[in-house]
Amino acid sequence: MTTTDQLSDSELLKRMLAGDEEALSVLYRRRQGAIYRFAMQMSGSQALSEDVTQEVFMVLMRGDGGFDETRGSVNSFLLGIARNLVRRKVSREQFYVSLDDQSKATISGEHQPGGPNLFDELARDETIESVREAVLSLPAHYREVVVLCDLQELSYVEAANVLNCPVGTVRSRLHRARTLLLEKLRPASEESPANAAIRSARCFA
Predict the structure, then answer these.
(1) What is the DSSP string of 186-202?
(2) pLDDT, tens only, 64-99
């Protein structure tokens, strides 16, 4: 006999919408950590991340999300809701990240298929704090792909589902985001005049 813990996310969601409180509890335990980490890595705010995590499941309980199993996984669906909530809160509250006061977000992740393990490479020369600050300083559309692909370990297809954009857009944004991170974290003293000129030119691209 299959226990509730053994059910897939999709099955748990169906049971939850039918009023099964145990299914809601299992789905929450299974997915709340990823949602919180995404919000934290996007905003740097513990309070905002806690709010977003709770609100994602409130949206689910109200049945407002409109999950379609043919369009992607429940995990991608939940992160998509979280993404919209983070953007809305940041915009509405004019939230500005304070790098000195925020709690530390976890920066870790296995390598993305087809690409290097960026954060393992950076960690050789940089502190976790420096990498965290660099990620938070990226423009939102670049920060999203780094968080989803390099930190949350989603595939390009899953990230595209979350962001509601083509896979090619995810690939190009991630390439650009990784380049920006490397530029931010590379000590200025190590740059050659040629590299410095290229970096300067990119700032106006």
Answers:
(1) S-GGG--HHHHHHHHHH
(2) 667 888 888 899 999 999 999 998 887 766 544 443
Number of helices (H) and strands (E) in the chain: give both, helices first. 10, 0
Burial class of residue 40 (count of CB atoms within 10 Å of its CB; 0-12, 13-18, 19+): buried
Reduced to 3 states (helix: H, G, I; strand: E, B; else coil), residue 42 is helix
Mean pLDDT estimate for the chain: 78
End-to-end CA distance of the chain: 59
- Rounded-to-10 torsion of CA 16, 19, 25, 30: 0
- The confidence score (pLDDT) of residue 184 equals 84
* Contact predicate 56/11, CB 8 Å: no
pTM of the model: 0.72
**90-117 burial string, b = 16+ CB within 10 Å, else e?**
beeeeeebeeeebeebebebeebeeeee
**What domains are there in the chain, each with its CATH number?**
4-93 (1.10.1740.10), 118-202 (1.10.10.10)
Residue with tokens 């934290």: 40
